[in-house]
Design a protein that fits this description.
The chain is built from ten helices and 18 strands. It is of the alpha/beta class. It has three domains: about 220 residues, 3-Layer(bba) Sandwich (FAD/NAD(P)-binding domain); about 80 residues, D-Amino Acid Oxidase, subunit A, domain 2 (D-Amino Acid Oxidase, Chain A, domain 2, 2-Layer Sandwich), CATH 3.30.9; about 55 residues, no CATH class. The strands form three sheets. Strands 1, 2, 8, 9, 10, 11, 17 and 18 form an eight-stranded mixed beta sheet that branches.
Length: about 400
């Protein structure tokens, strides 16, 4: 059987993989993109897209994503347990998509740019030394570079680091899709729920025909997440649900790879652990890291030195992990029991915190700016309380 030779093999045809394949193919490199699924395929995901994600999407693909946007909101509601704490409306847009449609659109763009698709077939063997991937049907693919963009259970990550998931640091998400045509018409804003589990939160995301309802948090602090989820559902909707309709997946909440690869293998998206532990943002980081991985390979080829690709990528990648590192710091301030309780008490007393949170989601402020704002807000609140006490 004839071997297939490429400049770059991209494993995974989700946002990170499609972005990198599109960037590389548009430059003129010979690229193949592998995925065990055929497309369109269902994908467990809340489907939230931010203005930040839109900017990155437009920069990479230069097309409108409107055909795959199912719902647009201009606000968000914050709850603690089942009590509404605060909301912001008529502010900045938040978009919601069906990942089957979204991912199919962008993999089509990568293929149009020249990437050759190998879809619906799994990998049988991964030979780093010979830069060879063997598929289940026996075909062998040889390439100068490999990009691992195949999610939290990445084949490339397992190969490089012997395991892709650390159960002491990984998050777990559980979700269910509810038929919006039958009920739930009153849920017009995305809802975030604190206090439903430890070191995490719940969500209700409105879409065209469904509500996506889920919870996500660090697994080690929540050993009984299934029971917690059904309690959450029962509290919200006062009815029973079919357990078989619930789906789960690991979420790398802030658990990112410090070095996203080895030699000529680069990891991006969830395979590198790029998910924000505060906002849950993952798609924007997947698109951006895929773009950066593609650019790094192009720059190393221009220098005619393939050994520099990881070094170039790392410099770009660290602009993402800087934000995630600050998000992890903020998580230490928000999620411990006492801090969460104080946050729940403070949130109803201010209009600025919800708006600043949406500024953060939109990418209009950085985590360092957000943290400075929260610290200043807390300090002023403390001074006000002390002044009132001494009066």
């Amino acid at each position: 059987m004839k071997n297939n030779r490429y400049d770059v093999t991209v494993i995974g045809a989700g946002p990170a993989g499609a972005a990198s394949a599109h960037v590389l193919s548009s430059y003129g490199m010979k690229v193949c993109i592998l995925d065990k699924h055929t497309f369109p395929r269902s994908k467990l995901c809340g489907g939230l897209l931010t203005i930040k994600a839109q900017r990155i999407f437009n920069d990479i693909f230069n097309i409108s994503w409107d055909p795959v946007i199912e719902y647009v909101s201009d606000g968000v509601r914050f709850y603690h347990s089942n009590k509404l704490l605060n909301e912001v409306t008529n502010y900045k847009k938040i978009f919601f998509t069906n990942r089957a449609l979204f991912d199919n659109l962008i993999v089509e763009q990568a293929v149009k740019a020249g990437a050759e698709p190998y879809l619906g077939i799994s990998i049988a063997d991964f030979d780093e030394t010979n830069k060879t991937i063997t598929l289940k049907d026996g075909r062998k693919i040889i390439s100068d570079f490999i990009i691992g963009a195949d999610g939290v259970n990445s084949v490339g990550s397992k190969h490089l680091f012997k395991k892709s998931v650390d159960l002491n640091r990984i998050g777990l998400g559980l979700e269910i899709e509810l038929d919006r045509n039958k009920m739930y018409d009153d849920r017009i804003y995305p809802e975030i729920y604190f206090g439903v589990l430890k070191w995490g939160y719940g969500w209700v995301f409105p879409k065209k025909n469904t509500l996506t309802v889920g919870i996500g948090g660090l697994l080690k602090y929540n050993p009984h997440m299934t029971e917690t989820f059904f309690k959450f559902l029962g509290t919200l909707f006062e009815r029973n649900f079919d357990k078989s309709a619930v789906k789960g997946h690991y979420i790398p909440f802030g658990y990112y790879k410090k070095t996203p690869g080895k030699n000529n293998i680069l990891l991006c998206g969830d395979a590198a652990g790029l998910v924000d532990p505060i906002t849950g943002e993952g798609i924007a980081y997947a698109l951006l890291s895929g773009k950066y991985a593609g650019q790094a390979i192009i720059e190393s080829s221009i220098k005619n030195n393939s050994n520099t690709a990881l070094e170039i990528y790392l410099k770009k990648y660290q602009t993402i992990t800087k934000e995630l590192r600050q998000a992890n710091f903020l998580r230490l301030l928000l999620f411990p029991g006492i801090s969460e309780s104080l946050f729940a008490k403070a949130l109803p007393m201010t209009d600025t915190i919800p708006r600043k949170h949406m500024d953060l989601i939109s990418g209009d402020i950085t985590y360092s700016e957000y943290i400075r704002f929260l610290i200043t807000k807390s300090f002023k609140g403390s001074i006000k309380n002390l002044t009132g006490f001494y009066r």
